[in-house]
Amino acid sequence: MKIIGENIHIISPRVKEALAEKNIKFFQDLAVQQVEAGADILDLNIGPQKKAGDEIMPWLVKGIQQVVDVPLSLDTTNLAAIEAGLQVSKGWCIINSVSAEEERLAAVPPLAKKYETGLIALTMGKGGIPVSAEERVNIALETLLPMAMEYDIPMENLLIDPLVLTVSGCQEYCPECVEAVRILKVAGDPPPMTNVGLSNVSNQVPREMRPLINRTYGVMLLAAGVDYIIADPLDSEQNTFFRIVEERNPALDASVGDLVLALYDKTQAMEKLTVDDMDMDNPDQAAIFKTVQILYNDVIYTDSYLRF
User: Fold this and answer.
1) How far apart are CA 52 and CA 185, in angstroms?
2) Where are the chain's structural domains?
3) Cα–Cα distance between 44 and 61 in angstroms, integer?
4) Under a CB-based contact definition with an 8 Å cutoff, are residues 232 and 213 in contact?
């Protein structure tokens, strides 16, 4: 699994301010921090930037590539900005993103083919995002994979994103996204790559509760076979959770390591975690178990349920 660092994102007030001030040092420092923390790729989310996107993106790409040597994910709906960034990039990039909507399908894949980039493809059409895993996979099989074949985009460059939605308000989507990843990984020979935006699962959740939800859901998605995760590489505890399952070493966190590994193994086996898997006297394990229950959609999400 590869981590796409999410921290250069227009939603951040500091990022927005640095863009307005053309403060490249801010972005260079943030890029270095993410790569040193383990990011394999960096996402550059500049927002739509309708007026100046074709100036901002190449400025950002060139500045960041002066200090780090990792692929970049160019994240904007402004295709002129994406192409301007691709024209100056010194290495492989990912376009983030295309959906199954006709207008995007006509415009984005030719750009990915022209510059031989990766392409994040969202399982979303005119009707929005379906709830069920099967419907999301059908969008991939019936629209997104044929699109890649039409434009001769290699499967290793196609990153199908079944779309993580928040547990606060869209809770029923959470287990279905995990299942969609699992199905996609056996959907072809070779199968497409899969990608998720991890922190979306905790949108609209109180700030102090977000990290544990993200980490726990990340373990479940890893067990399903996800290839790329857009996430915060500066979350060291999240990285420890990922290392526990990748190295199969629960000793990396003596308090919860065994439970994290059990969650991974059970999810991989299409089973659910039970109270028999946890130490009821361990508050850290209890917090993970309660988090898992909301991600399974077995207990209705409320802030108070996770707090107490």
Assistant:
1) 39
2) 2-232
3) 8
4) no
- Tokens read off for 208: 């102090």
Its pTM stands at: 0.97
46-73 tens-digit pLDDT: 999 989 999 999 999 999 999 999 999 9
Query: Per-residue pLDDT tens for 159-177?
Result: 999 999 999 999 999 999 9
**283-295 vs 257-268: helix axis angle to the nearest 10?**
20
Report d(CA 282, CA 266) in Å as an integer: 20
φ/ψ (deg, to 5) at 74: -90, 110
We find that the CATH architecture of domain 2-232 is Alpha-Beta Barrel (3.20)
